[in-house]
Amino acid sequence: GDSVYVLRDQIAAGEAVMVDGVAVSFGQALGLGHKIARLAVPAGEKVIKYGSPIGRASRAIAPGDHVHLHNLVSDYTPTYALNGGA
User: Taking a C-beta distance cutoff of 8 angstroms, is the pair 25, 16 a contact?
Assistant: First the structure.
């Protein structure tokens, strides 16, 4: 049920990887642990990683897109910061 894949290795700029049978290339290098959309996530919908929601799509995310601060709003960071780290 996850909506993202988590990279287990680095991807070089311009390198293509297969995402559910479709070759996707990236304009920038992506490091270990970065997320790539496994499926389409409409704006406002939860993004699921390892079975848990990690935030909401701030705009529509297409399969194969890099999922990061430019298209994901964390549901954790604001609460964590407002509670003084507790």
Answer: yes
